[in-house]
Amino acid sequence: MTTKIFKRKSGRKPEEMRPISAKVGIIPNADGSAMYQSGETIAIAAVYGPKKMHPQHMQDPGKGVLRCTYSMLSFSVTDRIRPGPNRRSTEISKIIEWAIEPVLMIDKFPNTVIDVHINIIQADAGTRCAAINAAAMALASAGIPMKNMVSSIAAGKLDKTVVLDLDKYEDSEFEEGEGSTDIPMTFTDDGKLTHIQIDGNITKEQLKEAIEMAKKASKKIYEVQKKALKDTGEEK
Ligand code: UDP
Hints:
Blueprint lengths: L19 E5 L7 E7 L2 E12 L12 E8 L14 H14 L11 E11 L4 H15 L8 E9 L2 E4 L3 H6 L6 E9 L4 E4 L7 H28 L5
Parallel strand pairs: 4-5
Antiparallel strand pairs: 1-2, 2-3, 3-5, 6-7, 6-8, 8-9
Helix pairs in contact: 1-2, 2-4
Bound molecules: uridine-5'-diphosphate (UDP).
């Protein structure tokens, strides 16, 4: 239960997410592509494939391979980031694969690879969630069969208050009381969790509250994704 009324620096209510928008078909050369924006965080995703996996020893005769590559562009944050892969981007790339794979009917494409390149062009926290939302839409627009759409959002805690969708200040600089806890999650459109991470401390009760808050928000994200896909006639 939320224990006190908490004033967020952004002026948002505890259960209020940042404004979101989405667009499909932004990169004509890709087999599928999408953009997802949440506040100041913007992710773009491009799908190439399914195509034959090379080298051959990496082929799986039972199913295709989903290969996600997440990267933050150098000028996506105030302190320029060195380009190229690093430990964080390698970890987030794996997480994106794990969050999406459960809904992807990848067994229909044996011996192939589906490449999803996700670039964060502007970052203000929540980039992995924006990346998952953009990647899932890009895959749907590429015509890869999916059992469900997935929608990702973080909930968490600022001092003792459960809140939705932490921004960069709340995620990294907030130091009052117990500090902040960030819990990125991904849900299918029928409410099943495919991904959860917890960075910080939280009680069992508050974790339940955070999950419910994020699940409710994921339905709103799903509506925006669905509309973006419909607008290009590529709804799954
Ligand atoms: N960030 C940054 N430089 C970095 C990595 C992250 O400025 O090298 C910022 C960026 O705004 C990012 C935020 O810190 O969105 C939170 O990063 P985190 O690793 O928690 O992942 P995210 O919340 O973006 O999924």
